[in-house]
Amino acid sequence: MLQEFKDFAMKGNVIDLAVAVVIGAAFGKIVSSLVDNLITPLVGLFLGGVDFTDLSYAVGDAVFGYGAFIQSVIDFTIVAFVIFMVVKAINKAQGPKEAEEVALAGPTELDILKEIRDEMKRK
Asked: Which pTM value belongs to this model?
């Protein structure tokens, strides 16, 4: 069992995953800082400094803090948009890779089958 665990832990996929988690955590801090310190204040300027966190509704002793939920949704939307823009910029900087890989790989099985079909139609 110990050998199986060692084999599992030393597989390339597990190590790659561990590296991705560490880099993802560091990248998350960068994105959080970008959103908290740059993007959110700009959005606050456009919205007039609106903060929904304190909005709530009380029913008896129960207090529903729906404002915190609204604020979390807004924060998530901002973070998701910033991550989308960063990934889009990275992909643009890397250039078109998929088209190159397809060109290098040659015709696909579907392409070959289409050629066979077209050749059979000619006869």
From this structure: 0.49
